[in-house]
Each structure stands twice: as structure tokens, then as C-alpha cells.
């Protein structure tokens, strides 16, 4: 499988007591699949994976897999601050039936290339028959996966299936594409989808698709059908949506947008916080102005 298309960075609904809200999560996954997405990416940045307990991350994955029911591939983000926990979560994803796992560079401490290579090698050796995607998000993880490192790992371990690049750098994305022929290179920045497809990327892990999946699906499907002008026009709309969804605190505006579209959805995992009433009104006003809400 070469991972492709529009893959929402699945949001996680929480109850007021801070637990994963399974029924709402399953309803949300059903809604995303009905909107035509090509895959699902739970427990990543927008899914609040790094602030969940390992048990909650396992729960989320089980709920997403059950709701998806094999209709689209599910790639779980299993990276963690330690190698041992990353291996444990990745083994669980494999055993649970996920299509693959994305492994963010370990965060908090600074790591050089030999340390990062040893980390990813340990995971690849622990689950050699499971598709693994290197997840490059230096702005959050502090540590950057280089195309050279990705190349070395892919040559040593056939289970390295590709890269999710959230560097926000077109040059870095193109370097990954050149370094990993035949592998999936997924962009992690909504505003770059059209540009990424032009460069040879296979798809996007999308935040905008969390709440407006049809917009991102339209870009991808129009592009693949050769309707490039239409894809470019929708990309411009997606860029404005991305700006509107950044008007409140991290992630919560996406959950509000899902709720405003008719799904009961909410809760944040501390220390992430919810929007104030004024912030919510600002986000909603921007989405109404863009014609996405009435």
C-alpha cells in the first residue's frame, strides 16, 4: 500500500472527566468516511496524542478501527518521548489491525542523527513486518528528520513505507520525494497540498479535513482528474479556512467547527484548553464570512 489522498488528523472527543468519548469518536469517524476521505490518522497532533496516556491512545485506536471497519486505512501515530513506549504503542497498533504507524521524532531533548537513527532502527527491528512512516514535525518535536536519515533507514528496513513531512518547507518536502522513490511522501500542511501534489507527494494528513473534509477531498480529486484550475481555486479556499481555524487556542476551533456542523463533539485534554466565548464567536464569525457556516 502506498498511503495517499486526504487523511484527516482525527480529532479526539473527551468527556468532561477527561476520558475518551468512544460513542462520539465512532460517530465522527463514520462522518469522515462518509465525506470521502482516503484514510485516518488518529493520535497525532490534532488528535492530542502526546498529552494522552498510553491507555487512552490504545482506546482511541480501537474505536477508530472499529468504526472504520476496513473501509479506509488507519495509520496510528505511535511516537512518544521514549523508545520503549514508542515500541510498545507501535506493537499494539500492529496487533490491533492498523495499516501502519507514524512515528514522530522523540521530543523534549535535543537528539543528533545517530541518536534518531538508533531510535527509529529499534522500532523497525521490533515490528519488521509493519508499515512505518517517519513523522517530521520539527516545530513541535524540536528534532528534525533529514532526508538523508530517511534514506538510510529506508535502505536498511523495508518496513519504512514513507514520510509525513510537517516541516512547512517546500524544499524539504521535495528532498524527501527525491530521497524516497516509490515510497509515500505525505505533506502535513494543508496550505501546501496543491504544491505538494505537483512535486510528487502522495497526499496530505490534514487538519482542515477534520471539520471540512469535502474541501480537501475536492482539491485532491480535482488534481488527480486533471482539473488543476479547480484544485487551485479550492486550495485558496482551504488556505482561508486554515487561517480562520487558527483564531482560537490550539486545536479547539476544529472541534467547535465539527460541533457547528451537527456532530456533538467537545472536550480538550489538559493542558490544552477550550475557546472562551469571545474566541468561539470570532472563529464562528470567520467561518460564516467564508460561507462555511450559516
Chain-wise SSE layout:
Layout: E1 5-8, H1 22-34, H2 54-68, E2 75-77, H3 83-96, E3 100-104, H4 113-126, E4 131-136, H5 138-141, H6 147-156, E5 160-165, H7 170-179, E6 184-187, H8 193-199, E7 203-206, H9 208-211, H10 213-224, H11 228-244, H12 252-260, H13 277-289
Parallel strand pairs: 1-7, 2-3, 3-4, 4-5, 5-6, 6-7
Structure description:
With 294 residues, the chain is an alpha/beta fold. Helix content is 48%, strand content 11%. A seven-stranded parallel sheet has the order 1-7-6-5-4-3-2. The protein has helices at residues 22-34, 54-68, 83-96, 113-126, 138-141, 147-156, 170-179, 193-199, 208-211, 213-224, 228-244, 252-260, 277-289; strands at 5-8, 75-77, 100-104, 131-136, 160-165, 184-187, 203-206.
Question: Could you tell me the mean pLDDT?
Answer: 97
Largest sheet strand order: 1-7-6-5-4-3-2
Figure out the total of helices.
13
Intertermini distance: 40 Å
Taken from the alpha-carbon principal axes, the silhouette is globular
Give start-end ranges of low-pLDDT stretches: none
Q: How many beta-strand elements?
A: 7
- Please trace the helix and strand order, writing H or E for each element: EHHEHEHEHHEHEHEHHHHH
Radius of gyration: 18 Å
The level of helicity is 40-55%
Alpha-beta content class: alpha/beta
How much strand content do the residues show?
A: 5-15%
Give the biggest sheet. Answer: 7 strands, parallel
